[in-house]
């Protein structure tokens, strides 16, 4: 049977994020150090495990001993070590002595830089135990944490104070010292259920021995156990568990052995919005909520993951009391908030800073209303509803409940608005204008919410760019990238198109009197570049970077859906068999004419055959192509191009030599090709396309 | 267990474990950390074990005596163990037994909670301790104090006495707590909460508080001989030798500044940008005091190092 090595570092309670962070660095360092020490085999298996009170590493498949090593060590240049007649100089004897060999054993090694002295060194491999004793202190020192601390004498830094270290190769202690603690075989069980220190006989018995001492070391196993307990407890309450991945990760990292203790609260608290009850339980107390059925009503119960359950009644009694006080607080906030209508908070927004150079939230809300009206009128939306939603969308920031639970912004505004009898489209928009919150979130699906969402984001973007707060590298404190992506996604996935240029200009105008921004042209230019960068980053995986670039090149920076039509048209053409030849031909036409002057084509100068055919065909369809382009029917335009011009232009390049000596003929040819290139460029810049479009499997989403 | 019995039990417990039992500070503090028995003694190499009650004022937390859980003045029980012993968690859990709570019958958890006092230039890492879901204590390993690295490190245990008493007496309203037989918490403090809430939120004279802040701030510079000029890397410069500086009166002035800032904050008289500036001003004078205190102890040869050696 192969050997097994175990390292366990016992600590005071580590925060959840510390454990995952430390285990990752422990595992990576172990793999690296074992490799460097030549202890790895093909069956090497490194597994990191942890609880709040211990970080552990199990290594299987270690070599029984380090293999011997033969190595060529390079020395000084040959000429510095030996005379021309081959007699050794001081450098040669020194080098030989250093490696414990006779001068005669030195060899000549030719390299790019000339001849050098070399020696073959044989290093006998050491026993695995001895090598481990050398690398373990390094391994421990390399463990990293999001934050380290010092304790006691203050000499050492670690995630939390260290209490014991176990280091066992099978049944043998691999002794070393770390943080003033001598590694041995004594470990400890659960802080309350098995507090006495005990000895481990063998590394392979570690998990079992700890389980008997009420510690499930492996995080995944502990989580399985915890989830099993939660699901069963929910069932016994005749309900279902409200899933919450974040809470699950958090809770499993707070216990060494998970137990579930249910508790309850007075049903009258269920008059509060569900989100408030869930937030109180989750954020303050880390309790799971229980519903009558999936997506159904909340039950007046909660599930609490605890570390000990010797006396569940006492524990739930205590927790019930805490929750009761918290819920009573929340109810107090909601009742206070409802004493005045939502709109009464607007005045207070005048004393809340949005950004020090951009003024108050009150001013922002007034700009949002102007932006929302302009956007609504262009989108054919109900402008009054959009303006009212914009007026109310930030009012809940001044409510007590949102002050207490910031993540309920929007949700609570909607809830209060509905109870005041506000139109549901407006109330929904108060919630939806924060969407999408991130890449996984949906965009507003109703027009009013979409209008306010865009109005809000463009105000932030224009304001920040207008005072030079432009994201750099990873620094994007106002989440401007996310704001721009939000606008793009709302236009492409949501209910309204967005004309970026008009939007930016409108948002710049709205700042008049509120803040000193850079000139509108500058803001527009830098935001145009910023949006193009975001569009490219968002769409390149789905459509290919070159297709997006080709369409961005032809796009005028206005309608986002127009850009999408171009991309779809090019992608559609890209799937057709004749595409490649077409792309090559237009690329050629562009390249050859990019420096030449445009002008009227003189039919008299055309050569009969391929050139006349191309010219005639082009003149016939030119207006149709331009009309389709002008009407943003890019797929139609490209179909015409492919159908009418594909064969003639191929033939043209095969048969006609453009750069003839006669200047008049040459110029006329360039004019024809130039006009064709310009016409096609109005749809997409074919010269920016790769010759081979990457064909994408449509079943794979971006 | 009445409120006063709770205090007595903790006093006895920590006295038996070698802590000095001292008294609350006679100036307005926001937490036991502000008491010089913690803030100053956490600085420098001298060992220090101390325990005391600290009535702590948080003007913004006032609720006119109407909220059963929130007070503008509450009581902390503060323990400092320097250097922090390796069994500090066990000591803490034993102290709960001394209050009649068997930790193995309850759910006790150490939940990450780092502590920072921006005005004191102090921070540490540690936990909140939960007893059946109730936060009953703060547990902090001081890493810096007054901008000075703590070495050795002090372990700070802070018990929230009202919370613990409510738990032990099984009451939901802080004013219903029995302070002593026949005397409730409300008898002592309900009216006080209303008066202080009214003062802090409505009637405190803003100009007076601002003036007092400025004047006490100036006092710190005078009492320490703190120079306007800074040395290399922003190092503070003093015109007085360490033992000529009056670090303790200067520290009182720091405490006053911090308190007036809190009142102004509760009064809504400080804007967001001003807020940062006020905090920075208090931090600077707190640092000047911390450095002066350290320099004085050093000039005196860190006397408690000898006492500790002699005791061993």
List the helices and strands and how they pair.
The complex is a heterodimer of chains A (702) and B (312).
Chain A lengths: L3 E8 L4 H21 L3 E12 L2 E9 L6 E9 H4 L8 H9 L8 E5 L2 E10 L4 H14 L7 E2 L6 E2 L3 E8 L2 E2 L3 E2 L2 E2 L3 E3 L8 E3 L6 H7 L6 H18 L3 E2 L3 H8 L6 E6 L9 H12 L1 E5 L6 E9 L5 H26 L8 H4 L3 E3 L3 E2 H19 L3 H10 L7 H5 L6 H9 L4 H9 L14 H20 L13 H14 L6 H11 L9 H24 L1 H10 L5 H15 L4 H15 L16 H21 L3 H22 L7 H19 L21
Chain B lengths: L2 H14 L3 E2 L14 H4 L8 E10 L15 E10 L5 H11 L9 E5 L2 E3 L4 E10 L2 E12 L2 E2 L5 E6 H9 L8 E3 L2 E2 H19 L2 H19 L1 E5 L5 E3 L8 H20 L5 H28 L3 H9 L1
Helix pairs in contact in B: 6-7, 6-8, 7-8
Rounded radius of gyration of chain A (Å): 36 Å
Please count the helical segments of chain A.
25
Structural domain tally of chain A: 5
CA distance, first residue to last residue of chain B: 37 Å
Polypeptide structure, described:
The complex is a heterodimer of chains A (702) and B (312). Chain A has 702 residues and is α+β, with helices and mostly antiparallel strands. Chain A has five domains: 4-66 and 127-212, no CATH class; 71-123, no CATH class; 220-337, no CATH class; 353-543, Orthogonal Bundle (Hypothetical protein af1432); 551-688, Isoleucyl-tRNA Synthetase, Domain 1, CATH 1.10.730. Chain A has a five-stranded antiparallel beta sheet, with helices on one face. In chain A, α1 runs antiparallel to α4 (128-141). Chain A is flat, with a radius of gyration of 36 Å. Chain A starts with a strand and ends in a 21-residue tail after the last helix. Mean pLDDT of chain A is 92; it is low at 693-702. Chain B has two domains: 3-200, Bira Bifunctional Protein, Domain 2 (BirA Bifunctional Protein, domain 2); 204-305, Class II aaRS and biotin synthetases, domain 2 (Methane Monooxygenase Hydroxylase, Chain G, domain 1, Up-down Bundle). Chain B is 43% helix and 23% strand. Chain B is built from nine helices and 13 strands. In chain B, strands 1, 2, 3, 4, 5, 6, 7, 8 and 9 form a nine-stranded mixed beta sheet that branches. Chain B has a two-stranded antiparallel ribbon with strand order 10-11. In chain B, strands 12-13 form a two-stranded antiparallel sheet. In chain B, α6 packs antiparallel against α7, α6 (206-224) packs parallel to α8 and α7 (247-266) packs antiparallel against α8. Chain B is globular and about 55 Å long. The model of chain B has no long low-confidence stretch (mean pLDDT 94). Chain A binds chain B through residues 12-13, 15-16, 18, 52, 147, 149-154, 160-161, 163, 192-193, 254-255, 261, 285, 304, 306-311, 314-315, 317-319, 321-325, 328-329, 332, 353, 356, and chain B through 67-69, 83-86, 89, 103-112, 114, 124-125, 127, 131-134, 141, 143, 149-153, 155, 167, 172, 271-273.
